[in-house]
Amino acid sequence: MADFRSCKEPSAWTRLARACNPDVVQGWLYHGNLGATLARAALATANVPLIWGNPQSLSTLQGENLFARIGIILNRSGSGHPDRLLFNSRTSLAQHREMGFRTVRAEYLPNGFQTQNFTAQSRSACPMARRMEYRR
């Protein structure tokens, strides 16, 4: 796995993005979306899809700190650029649209689990839990 902490200059980011040879570039939250956009721009080909993830609701900018506001404003101005924008709630998608985000390529992707299909197992039924059990 690549270590982005060692990238202190733009040329290092470019080398790292190209070395990863990704099939898709996805950002998560506003500053991650901006980083993903830079990583995609560093690639030799523009055929790699760029996806922005916006999991949070956004009723107003007033509750956000300055750093977050800047990220949100930059995301709003560039929101037509990604191949897809993902939102974990319909409310979040609607709020971002109301804040001026371009949502033509937006999709709602529910956040959570289908509890009717995935249920907890008792410790005795789960082999991993039995192996991890502390012995006295």
Which helices and strands, and how do they pair?
Blueprint: H1 10-20, E1 25-28, H2 29-42, E2 50-54, H3 66-78, E3 84-87, H4 90-98, E4 106-108, H5 127-132
Parallel strand pairs: 1-2, 2-3, 3-4
Helix pairs in contact: 2-3
CATH class: Alpha Beta
- The CATH architecture assignment turns out to be 3-Layer(aba) Sandwich
* CATH superfamily heading: Glycogen Phosphorylase B
- Characterize the biggest β-sheet: 4 strands, parallel
Distance between the termini: 38 Å
| Average predicted confidence as pLDDT | 82
What is the chain-wise order of helices and strands? HEHEHEHEH
Number of strands: 4
Unreliable stretches covering 5 or more consecutive residues:
none
> What name is given to the CATH topology?
Rossmann fold
Envelope shape:
globular
Count of helix runs: 5
Structural class: alpha/beta
| Radius of gyration, taken over Cα atoms and rounded to an integer in Å | 19 Å
**Strands side by side in the biggest sheet:** 1-2-3-4
User: DSSP strand (E) fraction?
Assistant: 5-15%
Can you describe this structure?
With 136 residues, this protein is α/β, with parallel strands linked by helices. The chain has one domain (4-132): Rossmann fold, CATH 3.40.50. It contains 5 helices and 4 strands. A 4-stranded parallel sheet has the order 1-2-3-4. Helix 2 links the parallel strand 1 and strand 2. The longest helix is centred in the first third of the chain and has 14 residues, at 29-42. It is globular, with a radius of gyration of 19 Å. The relative contact order is 0.11. The model has no long low-confidence stretch (mean pLDDT 82).
